[in-house]
Structure formats: structure tokens, C-alpha cells
Write a structure and sequence with these properties.
Blueprint lengths: L4 H15 L27 H12 L12 H13 L21
């Protein structure tokens, strides 16, 4: 099995074949995004409280995205941040109807 860029190219070809889009325009960019910060934090017994503290301590008055594992978790996290932490949030996931996907 090929490694490195050759393997990535095979994955791209597989995805394009699975999507079945005729003559797709493929735009490729580096994952090196110095303007973005990625951080993965281990889950604790009280993950929402941990998230609240992280946002207050490290990201006060900044914008960001919180990724969740399920649609219901997006709703729960957004509700917690809005109601309990007074941090304005909206949630987004693929299961939303077209209208709620448009930001207010």
C-alpha cells in the first residue's frame, strides 16, 4: 500500500468515486493554518463545567467552534453555554432544516 501523498491521492480518488460527481473541481490546501488553534482535551466527569472554565480562562471575548460527537450534544452544549454561562452561542449540524442553518 502506498504511503504519504500517494495514499492521500488514492483516498481522494475513492471519495470522488463514491460521490459520483461528474468532472468535479478539486481544490487542495495545506492543513497548516497558523491562524487556527486546535486543542483536544480529555473528557472529565463534568465536561460542561470544564468547557465553561476553559472558555472563561483562555478564550474570553473570542470566537470559536466547539465540536461535539452527536447532534443532541450540540444542542445540550449550546443550551448550557447560553443559559448557565451567559455565553452567546448557536449550534449547527447537518440535521437542521435549511432555515435554522442561516445565522440570525
Amino acid at each position: 500500500m502506498p504511503e504519504g501523498p500517494e495514499q492521500a491521492n488514492l483516498v481522494s480518488v475513492d471519495i470522488l468515486n463514491a460521490l459520483g460527481i461528474p468532472h468535479p473541481l478539486v481544490l487542495e490546501r495545506s492543513f497548516d493554518r497558523p491562524n487556527l488553534k486546535y486543542e483536544v482535551i480529555g473528557k472529565t466527569k463534568e465536561p460542561l463545567k470544564k468547557l465553561r472554565q476553559l472558555l472563561i480562562d483562555c478564550f474570553r471575548n473570542q470566537c470559536g467552534i466547539v465540536y461535539c460527537l452527536s447532534k443532541s450534544e450540540y444542542v445540550e452544549v449550546s443550551k448550557f453555554l447560553n443559559e448557565k454561562c451567559k455565553i452567546k452561542t448557536v449550534y449547527y449540524h447537518a440535521g437542521l432544516a435549511a432555515r435554522p442553518r442561516i445565522a440570525p
